[in-house]
Amino acid sequence: MKLPRRKFLHLAAGAAALPAMSRIAWAQAYPTRPVRMIVGYPPGGTADVVYTLLVVDASPAINTTLYHNLNFFFFRDIAPVACVISVPLFMVVNPAVPAKTVPEFIAYAKANPRNVNMASNGNGGLLHLAGELFKMMTGVDLVHVPYRGAQPALTDVISGQVQVMFVASTVEYIKTGKVRALAVTTPTRSEVLPDVPPLSEFVPGYDAAAWIGVSAPKKTPPEIIDKLNKEVNAALADPKLKLQLADLGSSVAGGSAADYGRRLEEEAEKWGKVIRAANINAE
Questions:
Q1: Residue 262: its pLDDT value, please?
Q2: How far apart are CA 200 and CA 5, in angstroms?
Q3: Which helix (H) or strand (E) holds 272?
Q4: Predicted local distance difference test score (pLDDT) of residue 52
Q5: 179, 95 contact by CB (below 8 A)
Q6: Which H or E element spans position 24?
Q7: Phi, psi of 228, rounded to the nearest 5 degrees
Q8: 226 neighbors 17 (Cβ within 8 angstroms)
Q9: CA-to-CA distance for 75 and 79, rounded, in angstroms?
């Protein structure tokens, strides 16, 4: 994925127009003009329901290892502001799959090597890597079937063309029985589906989640980063927003800019290991 770097850097334009002011006054006055919002994803996705300067999910952190010839360096070009939401993934199977639990699925997959297909939204995406992490930690041999997007992949899980998928935003399909949820990929249970156990109960140490965060251009003054961080955290404290996100199967994250920066680095390291171990290529 190529970040629109020029447009991204233009987010600093409003602040750069105030060179004669002190840094503190600069932060107090910001913004002095409309701030351009960049959402690098199709309309109607999770990113559309959160406040954004630049929407960042796990993809840029993953891409630092997945791609070898990027014309930008993500961690050099952005300044973390705050992590906004965390979105658990669910390990789901077609109802025809005989396994009702994760241990049963592992046994089923080992008894049928290379005959169980795993869908994802494309090579090197988070959903793919979550499945590869599961394969590495359990020793099962699943056949990866990449799709152009999560919805087409999930549609084929529902129809039985593929058997298993790690996916977010599938709560209604689980509730209506179109797919069977074997586990949630986070260490704690999802509030919206509390009966689904964490995968780590069966595969100790397993942890994977989607997330959305806010970033700004690298040279944004610290005072403005702090102001933006406080505004994001204030918005996340709104009970109505929490309820809306909960209905989507997500939870608020928040925290400091430093917390978010550490998360980005940890995600890059974690998924980089999976990419190298599984020899994953973008194409």
A1: 92
A2: 38
A3: helix 257-278
A4: 39
A5: yes
A6: helix 23-29
A7: -65, -40
A8: no
A9: 8
